[in-house]
Amino acid sequence: MIAIVDYDAGNVRSLINALRRVGVSEWELTSDPELLMSADRVLLPGVGDASVALASLRFLGLDSVIPSLKCPVLGICVGMQVMCRGSEEGDAVGLGIFDTDVVRFIPGDPSVKIPHMGWNSLTGLKSPLFDGLAEGTFMYFVHSYYAGICDCTVAASEHSVPFSAALCKDNFFGTQFHPEKSGSDGARLLHNFLSL
Amino acid sequence: MVAKRIIPCLDVKDGRTVKGINFLGLREVGDAVELGARYASQGADELVYLDISATVKGRKTFVGLVKAISERIDIPFTVGGGISSLEDAGRMLEAGADKITVNSAALRNPSLVDEIASHFGSQFVVVAIDARKSGDRWMAMSGGGRFATGRELFIWASEVQERGAGEILFTSMDHDGTRQGYPCDVFSELNSLLRIPVIASGGAGSAEDIAAVLSEGKADAALAASIFHYGEITIPELKHFLVSKGIKVRI
Lengths: 196, 251
What we know:
Order of helices and strands of chain A: EHEHEHHEHEEEEEEEEEH
Radius of gyration of chain A: 15 Å
Shape of chain B: globular
Strand order of the largest sheet of chain B: 1-3-4-5-6-9-10-11
CATH architecture of chain A: 3-Layer(aba) Sandwich
Number of strands of chain A: 13
Strand content of chain B: 15-25%
Number of helices of chain A: 6
Structural class of chain B: alpha/beta
Number of strands of chain B: 11
Number of helices of chain B: 10
Number of domains of chain B: 1
Largest sheet of chain B: 8 strands, parallel, barrel
CATH architecture of chain B: Alpha-Beta Barrel
Oligomer: heterodimer
Helix content of chain A: 25-40%
CATH superfamily of chain A: Class I glutamine amidotransferase (GATase) domain
Structural class of chain A: alpha/beta
Distance between the termini of chain B: 14 Å
Radius of gyration of chain B: 17 Å
Protein backbone atom coordinates (compact mmCIF):
# COMPACT_ATOMS: atom_id res chain seq x y z
CA MET A 1 0.00 0.00 0.00
CA ILE A 2 1.20 3.48 -0.92
CA ALA A 3 0.64 6.06 1.79
CA ILE A 4 0.67 9.80 1.29
CA VAL A 5 1.20 11.68 4.54
CA ASP A 6 -1.80 13.91 5.21
CA TYR A 7 -0.58 16.77 7.36
CA ASP A 8 -2.25 19.79 5.81
CA ALA A 9 0.93 21.04 4.12
CA GLY A 10 -0.38 21.90 0.71
CA ASN A 11 -2.41 20.51 -2.12
CA VAL A 12 -1.79 16.82 -2.84
CA ARG A 13 -3.93 16.71 -5.97
CA SER A 14 -0.93 17.11 -8.30
CA LEU A 15 0.89 14.24 -6.63
CA ILE A 16 -2.15 11.98 -6.75
CA ASN A 17 -2.69 12.82 -10.42
CA ALA A 18 0.97 12.00 -11.15
CA LEU A 19 0.71 8.69 -9.30
CA ARG A 20 -2.38 7.84 -11.35
CA ARG A 21 -0.44 8.60 -14.53
CA VAL A 22 2.29 6.11 -13.55
CA GLY A 23 -0.36 3.46 -12.98
CA VAL A 24 -1.05 3.70 -9.26
CA SER A 25 -4.74 3.02 -8.64
CA GLU A 26 -4.78 2.77 -4.84
CA TRP A 27 -3.30 4.95 -2.17
CA GLU A 28 -4.09 6.13 1.34
CA LEU A 29 -3.99 9.78 2.26
CA THR A 30 -3.42 9.41 5.97
CA SER A 31 -1.86 10.71 9.16
CA ASP A 32 -2.48 7.45 11.03
CA PRO A 33 0.89 6.13 12.38
CA GLU A 34 -0.31 2.51 12.15
CA LEU A 35 -1.17 2.85 8.47
CA LEU A 36 2.11 4.65 7.75
CA MET A 37 4.08 1.89 9.49
CA SER A 38 2.34 -0.81 7.49
CA ALA A 39 2.78 0.95 4.13
CA ASP A 40 5.08 -0.32 1.36
CA ARG A 41 5.89 3.22 0.27
CA VAL A 42 5.42 6.54 2.02
CA LEU A 43 5.28 9.86 0.21
CA LEU A 44 5.72 13.08 2.17
CA PRO A 45 4.62 16.04 0.03
CA GLY A 46 4.80 19.63 1.16
CA VAL A 47 4.60 23.20 -0.01
CA GLY A 48 4.74 26.41 1.96
CA ASP A 49 6.62 27.13 5.14
CA ALA A 50 8.88 24.35 6.50
CA SER A 51 8.42 25.47 10.11
CA VAL A 52 4.63 25.26 9.73
CA ALA A 53 4.95 21.81 8.14
CA LEU A 54 7.17 20.64 11.01
CA ALA A 55 4.77 22.01 13.61
CA SER A 56 1.99 20.11 11.90
CA LEU A 57 4.01 16.85 11.88
CA ARG A 58 4.74 17.31 15.61
CA PHE A 59 1.10 18.06 16.37
CA LEU A 60 0.14 14.78 14.68
CA GLY A 61 2.93 12.89 16.46
CA LEU A 62 4.54 12.00 13.14
CA ASP A 63 7.93 13.55 13.92
CA SER A 64 8.93 10.32 15.67
CA VAL A 65 7.01 7.99 13.32
CA ILE A 66 8.57 9.12 10.03
CA PRO A 67 12.24 8.59 11.03
CA SER A 68 11.35 5.10 12.30
CA LEU A 69 9.80 3.93 9.00
CA LYS A 70 11.51 0.97 7.33
CA CYS A 71 9.94 1.18 3.86
CA PRO A 72 11.19 3.57 1.14
CA VAL A 73 10.09 7.12 2.00
CA LEU A 74 10.13 10.01 -0.47
CA GLY A 75 9.87 13.61 0.68
CA ILE A 76 9.11 16.18 -1.99
CA CYS A 77 10.10 19.88 -1.77
CA VAL A 78 9.22 20.99 1.79
CA GLY A 79 8.65 17.27 2.48
CA MET A 80 12.38 16.82 1.80
CA GLN A 81 13.38 19.91 3.77
CA VAL A 82 11.60 18.77 6.95
CA MET A 83 13.72 15.58 6.90
CA CYS A 84 16.93 17.66 7.21
CA ARG A 85 18.56 18.75 10.49
CA GLY A 86 16.80 22.07 10.59
CA SER A 87 15.56 25.01 8.57
CA GLU A 88 16.29 28.69 8.69
CA GLU A 89 12.66 29.19 7.71
CA GLY A 90 10.98 29.90 11.03
CA ASP A 91 14.17 28.67 12.74
CA ALA A 92 12.75 25.14 12.88
CA VAL A 93 14.33 21.92 14.13
CA GLY A 94 13.95 19.20 11.49
CA LEU A 95 13.56 15.44 11.66
CA GLY A 96 17.35 15.03 11.37
CA ILE A 97 17.37 12.22 8.81
CA PHE A 98 19.57 14.05 6.32
CA ASP A 99 22.70 15.54 7.82
CA THR A 100 22.38 19.03 6.36
CA ASP A 101 20.66 22.31 7.12
CA VAL A 102 18.12 24.18 5.02
CA VAL A 103 19.04 27.82 4.44
CA ARG A 104 17.70 30.71 2.38
CA PHE A 105 19.13 31.64 -1.01
CA ILE A 106 20.92 34.97 -0.68
CA PRO A 107 22.20 35.79 -4.16
CA GLY A 108 24.89 38.43 -4.52
CA ASP A 109 23.75 38.99 -8.08
CA PRO A 110 20.38 40.80 -8.26
CA SER A 111 19.57 39.08 -11.56
CA VAL A 112 19.30 35.76 -9.69
CA LYS A 113 15.61 35.58 -8.82
CA ILE A 114 14.17 34.20 -5.59
CA PRO A 115 12.22 31.93 -5.40
CA HIS A 116 14.20 29.58 -7.59
CA MET A 117 11.35 28.76 -9.92
CA GLY A 118 11.40 26.80 -13.13
CA TRP A 119 13.36 24.01 -14.74
CA ASN A 120 16.95 23.37 -13.73
CA SER A 121 19.40 20.65 -14.61
CA LEU A 122 20.73 17.94 -12.28
CA THR A 123 24.30 16.73 -12.00
CA GLY A 124 26.10 14.05 -10.03
CA LEU A 125 23.21 11.59 -10.18
CA LYS A 126 23.88 8.63 -7.90
CA SER A 127 20.77 6.86 -6.77
CA PRO A 128 18.46 4.22 -8.22
CA LEU A 129 15.88 7.03 -8.16
CA PHE A 130 17.58 8.28 -11.34
CA ASP A 131 17.71 5.00 -13.23
CA GLY A 132 17.21 5.74 -16.91
CA LEU A 133 17.72 9.48 -16.39
CA ALA A 134 20.81 11.18 -17.80
CA GLU A 135 23.18 13.73 -16.28
CA GLY A 136 21.74 17.14 -17.11
CA THR A 137 18.10 16.02 -16.83
CA PHE A 138 15.83 18.97 -16.06
CA MET A 139 13.33 18.97 -13.22
CA TYR A 140 10.83 21.62 -12.04
CA PHE A 141 11.66 23.57 -8.86
CA VAL A 142 9.82 26.18 -6.77
CA HIS A 143 11.61 27.11 -3.54
CA SER A 144 13.34 29.91 -1.66
CA TYR A 145 15.30 27.73 0.80
CA TYR A 146 17.73 24.95 -0.03
CA ALA A 147 19.66 22.09 1.54
CA GLY A 148 23.40 22.38 1.16
CA ILE A 149 25.55 19.76 -0.49
CA CYS A 150 26.35 16.97 1.98
CA ASP A 151 27.18 13.27 2.20
CA CYS A 152 23.51 12.46 1.49
CA THR A 153 23.42 14.44 -1.76
CA VAL A 154 22.53 12.17 -4.68
CA ALA A 155 21.84 14.93 -7.22
CA ALA A 156 22.99 18.54 -7.26
CA SER A 157 21.73 21.64 -8.99
CA GLU A 158 22.85 25.25 -8.98
CA HIS A 159 21.12 28.58 -8.40
CA SER A 160 23.79 31.15 -7.52
CA VAL A 161 25.16 28.36 -5.25
CA PRO A 162 25.27 24.58 -5.66
CA PHE A 163 22.58 22.86 -3.63
CA SER A 164 21.08 19.41 -3.04
CA ALA A 165 18.45 18.61 -5.67
CA ALA A 166 18.00 15.15 -4.15
CA LEU A 167 19.05 13.47 -0.93
CA CYS A 168 19.22 9.84 0.14
CA LYS A 169 20.03 8.09 3.36
CA ASP A 170 19.21 4.42 3.85
CA ASN A 171 15.51 4.04 2.95
CA PHE A 172 14.87 7.81 2.97
CA PHE A 173 14.81 9.86 -0.22
CA GLY A 174 14.08 13.49 -0.83
CA THR A 175 13.75 15.68 -3.90
CA GLN A 176 13.81 19.46 -3.78
CA PHE A 177 12.15 19.49 -7.21
CA HIS A 178 8.61 18.38 -7.99
CA PRO A 179 8.68 15.08 -9.90
CA GLU A 180 4.88 15.31 -10.18
CA LYS A 181 5.30 18.45 -12.32
CA SER A 182 8.45 17.45 -14.20
CA GLY A 183 7.01 15.82 -17.27
CA SER A 184 8.07 12.35 -18.36
CA ASP A 185 11.39 12.54 -16.48
CA GLY A 186 9.56 13.25 -13.25
CA ALA A 187 7.20 10.37 -13.97
CA ARG A 188 10.22 8.13 -14.48
CA LEU A 189 11.58 9.13 -11.08
CA LEU A 190 8.26 8.34 -9.39
CA HIS A 191 8.15 5.02 -11.20
CA ASN A 192 11.73 4.31 -10.02
CA PHE A 193 10.79 5.12 -6.43
CA LEU A 194 7.79 2.80 -6.58
CA SER A 195 9.99 0.05 -8.08
CA LEU A 196 12.76 0.23 -5.44
CA MET B 1 21.23 28.22 -13.67
CA VAL B 2 17.50 27.97 -14.14
CA ALA B 3 16.41 27.55 -17.76
CA LYS B 4 14.45 30.19 -19.66
CA ARG B 5 10.87 28.99 -20.07
CA ILE B 6 8.77 28.69 -23.20
CA ILE B 7 5.05 28.92 -22.47
CA PRO B 8 2.30 28.34 -25.04
CA CYS B 9 -0.92 30.16 -24.21
CA LEU B 10 -4.31 28.65 -25.02
CA ASP B 11 -7.48 30.72 -25.15
CA VAL B 12 -10.51 28.73 -24.07
CA LYS B 13 -14.17 29.51 -24.61
CA ASP B 14 -16.92 27.29 -23.21
CA GLY B 15 -14.36 24.55 -22.58
CA ARG B 16 -12.73 24.54 -25.99
CA THR B 17 -9.70 26.25 -27.47
CA VAL B 18 -10.70 28.95 -29.89
CA LYS B 19 -7.67 29.91 -31.90
CA GLY B 20 -6.80 28.21 -35.16
CA ILE B 21 -4.59 25.24 -34.66
CA ASN B 22 -2.36 23.59 -37.17
CA PHE B 23 -1.33 20.33 -35.58
CA LEU B 24 -1.48 17.35 -37.83
CA GLY B 25 -2.96 14.23 -36.37
CA LEU B 26 -4.86 15.96 -33.63
CA ARG B 27 -8.33 14.52 -33.87
CA GLU B 28 -10.23 17.25 -32.16
CA VAL B 29 -8.55 20.57 -32.69
CA GLY B 30 -10.69 22.32 -30.13
CA ASP B 31 -9.79 19.97 -27.30
CA ALA B 32 -7.90 22.09 -24.78
CA VAL B 33 -6.60 19.12 -22.80
CA GLU B 34 -5.26 17.27 -25.85
CA LEU B 35 -3.68 20.39 -27.27
CA GLY B 36 -1.97 21.12 -23.95
CA ALA B 37 -0.76 17.53 -23.72
CA ARG B 38 0.66 17.84 -27.21
CA TYR B 39 2.55 21.00 -26.27
CA ALA B 40 3.81 19.36 -23.08
CA SER B 41 5.13 16.34 -24.96
CA GLN B 42 6.88 18.65 -27.43
CA GLY B 43 8.80 20.30 -24.58
CA ALA B 44 6.69 23.26 -23.45
CA ASP B 45 7.89 24.27 -19.98
CA GLU B 46 4.53 25.47 -18.71
CA LEU B 47 1.09 26.16 -20.13
CA VAL B 48 -1.27 29.08 -19.68
CA TYR B 49 -5.00 28.60 -20.17
CA LEU B 50 -7.05 31.78 -20.44
CA ASP B 51 -10.80 31.53 -20.11
CA ILE B 52 -12.41 34.02 -22.46
CA SER B 53 -15.98 32.81 -21.83
CA ALA B 54 -18.22 35.69 -21.01
CA THR B 55 -21.04 33.63 -19.51
CA VAL B 56 -21.59 32.04 -16.11
CA LYS B 57 -22.07 28.68 -17.80
CA GLY B 58 -18.80 29.07 -19.68
CA ARG B 59 -16.98 29.87 -16.44
CA LYS B 60 -18.34 26.76 -14.76
CA THR B 61 -17.25 24.65 -17.72
CA PHE B 62 -13.77 26.09 -17.29
CA VAL B 63 -13.43 24.81 -13.71
CA GLY B 64 -14.25 21.30 -14.98
CA LEU B 65 -11.68 21.76 -17.71
CA VAL B 66 -9.02 22.76 -15.16
CA LYS B 67 -9.64 19.47 -13.34
CA ALA B 68 -9.25 17.53 -16.58
CA ILE B 69 -6.05 19.43 -17.39
CA SER B 70 -4.53 18.67 -13.99
CA GLU B 71 -5.27 14.98 -14.40
CA ARG B 72 -3.61 14.81 -17.78
CA ILE B 73 -0.87 17.46 -17.95
CA ASP B 74 2.43 16.69 -16.19
CA ILE B 75 3.98 20.16 -16.29
CA PRO B 76 2.96 23.29 -14.38
CA PHE B 77 0.01 25.26 -15.70
CA THR B 78 -1.48 28.67 -15.01
CA VAL B 79 -5.11 29.60 -15.44
CA GLY B 80 -6.66 33.02 -15.86
CA GLY B 81 -9.64 34.93 -17.09
CA GLY B 82 -12.40 36.07 -14.80
CA ILE B 83 -10.60 35.47 -11.51
CA SER B 84 -11.68 38.38 -9.37
CA SER B 85 -11.87 37.05 -5.81
CA LEU B 86 -10.06 34.88 -3.31
CA GLU B 87 -12.84 32.31 -3.77
CA ASP B 88 -12.30 32.18 -7.53
CA ALA B 89 -8.58 31.60 -6.95
CA GLY B 90 -9.29 28.92 -4.35
CA ARG B 91 -11.57 27.09 -6.78
CA MET B 92 -8.76 26.98 -9.32
CA LEU B 93 -6.25 25.69 -6.74
CA GLU B 94 -8.75 23.05 -5.69
CA ALA B 95 -9.24 22.05 -9.33
CA GLY B 96 -5.47 21.53 -9.63
CA ALA B 97 -4.05 24.73 -11.15
CA ASP B 98 -0.45 25.50 -10.18
CA LYS B 99 -0.86 29.25 -10.58
CA ILE B 100 -3.54 31.78 -11.39
CA THR B 101 -3.22 35.05 -13.23
CA VAL B 102 -5.09 38.23 -12.41
CA ASN B 103 -5.13 41.44 -14.42
CA SER B 104 -8.06 43.87 -14.40
CA ALA B 105 -9.35 42.55 -11.06
CA ALA B 106 -6.02 43.47 -9.43
CA LEU B 107 -6.20 46.97 -10.94
CA ARG B 108 -9.71 47.42 -9.52
CA ASN B 109 -8.80 45.91 -6.17
CA PRO B 110 -5.03 45.76 -5.59
CA SER B 111 -5.40 44.07 -2.19
CA LEU B 112 -6.66 40.98 -4.06
CA VAL B 113 -2.99 40.23 -4.80
CA ASP B 114 -2.13 40.33 -1.06
CA GLU B 115 -5.12 38.15 -0.22
CA ILE B 116 -4.37 35.43 -2.74
CA ALA B 117 -0.63 35.45 -2.02
CA SER B 118 -1.09 35.23 1.73
CA HIS B 119 -3.59 32.38 1.44
CA PHE B 120 -1.99 30.29 -1.27
CA GLY B 121 1.59 31.57 -1.53
CA SER B 122 3.30 33.98 -3.89
CA GLN B 123 4.21 31.17 -6.27
CA PHE B 124 0.47 30.86 -7.02
CA VAL B 125 -0.03 34.48 -8.13
CA VAL B 126 0.95 35.77 -11.55
CA VAL B 127 -0.04 39.38 -12.15
CA ALA B 128 -0.62 40.13 -15.82
CA ILE B 129 -0.06 43.72 -16.89
CA ASP B 130 -1.13 45.13 -20.25
CA ALA B 131 0.47 48.50 -20.95
CA ARG B 132 0.70 51.03 -23.72
CA LYS B 133 3.11 53.88 -24.29
CA SER B 134 1.48 57.22 -23.71
CA GLY B 135 3.81 60.13 -24.40
CA ASP B 136 7.05 58.95 -22.82
CA ARG B 137 5.39 56.84 -20.12
CA TRP B 138 4.19 53.24 -20.16
CA MET B 139 0.69 53.10 -18.69
CA ALA B 140 -1.17 50.01 -17.46
CA MET B 141 -4.50 49.33 -19.17
CA SER B 142 -7.47 47.28 -18.00
CA GLY B 143 -10.21 45.37 -19.82
CA GLY B 144 -7.83 43.77 -22.30
CA GLY B 145 -6.21 47.08 -23.19
CA ARG B 146 -9.43 49.06 -23.57
CA PHE B 147 -9.38 51.28 -20.49
CA ALA B 148 -6.82 53.66 -19.10
CA THR B 149 -6.06 53.14 -15.40
CA GLY B 150 -3.78 56.05 -14.64
CA ARG B 151 -1.21 53.62 -13.28
CA GLU B 152 2.32 53.73 -14.58
CA LEU B 153 3.73 50.31 -15.58
CA PHE B 154 6.91 50.30 -13.48
CA ILE B 155 5.19 51.67 -10.37
CA TRP B 156 2.34 49.16 -10.70
CA ALA B 157 4.75 46.25 -11.28
CA SER B 158 6.74 47.19 -8.16
CA GLU B 159 3.55 47.57 -6.15
CA VAL B 160 2.21 44.12 -7.04
CA GLN B 161 5.63 42.60 -6.26
CA GLU B 162 5.45 44.18 -2.79
CA ARG B 163 1.88 42.89 -2.44
CA GLY B 164 3.10 39.34 -2.99
CA ALA B 165 2.94 38.59 -6.72
CA GLY B 166 5.21 35.69 -7.67
CA GLU B 167 5.65 36.65 -11.32
CA ILE B 168 4.78 39.41 -13.74
CA LEU B 169 3.33 38.65 -17.17
CA PHE B 170 3.82 41.78 -19.23
CA THR B 171 2.20 42.50 -22.60
CA SER B 172 2.84 45.64 -24.58
CA MET B 173 -0.47 46.55 -26.23
CA ASP B 174 1.57 48.47 -28.80
CA HIS B 175 3.30 45.25 -29.88
CA ASP B 176 0.67 42.57 -29.22
CA GLY B 177 -0.60 41.08 -32.45
CA THR B 178 1.94 42.95 -34.61
CA ARG B 179 4.37 40.03 -34.84
CA GLN B 180 7.15 42.61 -35.00
CA GLY B 181 8.92 41.61 -31.80
CA TYR B 182 8.89 42.70 -28.18
CA PRO B 183 9.99 46.05 -26.69
CA CYS B 184 13.23 44.61 -25.27
CA ASP B 185 14.27 47.85 -23.57
CA VAL B 186 11.08 47.89 -21.49
CA PHE B 187 11.52 44.23 -20.53
CA SER B 188 15.13 44.84 -19.57
CA GLU B 189 14.11 47.75 -17.36
CA LEU B 190 11.34 45.70 -15.74
CA ASN B 191 13.76 42.87 -15.07
CA SER B 192 16.29 45.20 -13.44
CA LEU B 193 13.58 46.72 -11.29
CA LEU B 194 11.98 43.50 -10.02
CA ARG B 195 13.15 40.57 -7.88
CA ILE B 196 10.47 38.28 -9.29
CA PRO B 197 10.49 36.63 -12.73
CA VAL B 198 9.12 38.45 -15.76
CA ILE B 199 7.25 36.61 -18.52
CA ALA B 200 7.23 38.31 -21.91
CA SER B 201 4.05 38.20 -23.93
CA GLY B 202 2.69 39.77 -27.09
CA GLY B 203 4.57 40.50 -30.26
CA ALA B 204 6.51 37.37 -31.15
CA GLY B 205 6.65 36.85 -34.89
CA SER B 206 9.74 34.69 -35.04
CA ALA B 207 12.25 32.66 -33.06
CA GLU B 208 14.63 35.64 -33.31
CA ASP B 209 12.08 37.82 -31.47
CA ILE B 210 11.89 35.30 -28.63
CA ALA B 211 15.68 34.99 -28.45
CA ALA B 212 15.93 38.79 -28.26
CA VAL B 213 13.47 39.20 -25.38
CA LEU B 214 15.14 36.40 -23.41
CA SER B 215 18.66 37.80 -23.92
CA GLU B 216 18.54 41.60 -24.47
CA GLY B 217 15.18 41.86 -22.71
CA LYS B 218 16.43 39.59 -19.87
CA ALA B 219 12.95 38.07 -19.58
CA ASP B 220 12.76 34.80 -17.63
CA ALA B 221 10.14 33.28 -19.90
CA ALA B 222 8.35 33.90 -23.17
CA LEU B 223 4.66 33.27 -23.70
CA ALA B 224 3.23 32.97 -27.19
CA ALA B 225 0.08 31.78 -28.83
CA SER B 226 -0.25 32.20 -32.55
CA ILE B 227 3.25 31.22 -33.66
CA PHE B 228 2.74 27.86 -31.98
CA HIS B 229 -0.93 27.38 -32.81
CA TYR B 230 -0.42 28.01 -36.49
CA GLY B 231 2.54 25.67 -36.52
CA GLU B 232 4.90 28.32 -37.87
CA ILE B 233 7.53 27.17 -35.46
CA THR B 234 7.44 24.12 -33.27
CA ILE B 235 8.68 24.16 -29.70
CA PRO B 236 11.63 21.80 -30.42
CA GLU B 237 12.71 24.00 -33.35
CA LEU B 238 12.46 27.11 -31.20
CA LYS B 239 14.41 25.55 -28.34
CA HIS B 240 17.20 24.35 -30.60
CA PHE B 241 17.43 27.82 -32.07
CA LEU B 242 17.65 29.33 -28.56
CA VAL B 243 20.41 26.89 -27.61
CA SER B 244 22.33 27.93 -30.74
CA LYS B 245 22.10 31.51 -29.43
CA GLY B 246 23.63 30.46 -26.12
CA ILE B 247 20.36 30.65 -24.17
CA LYS B 248 19.79 27.92 -21.57
CA VAL B 249 16.54 26.08 -22.15
CA ARG B 250 15.29 22.62 -21.23
CA ILE B 251 15.59 20.19 -24.12
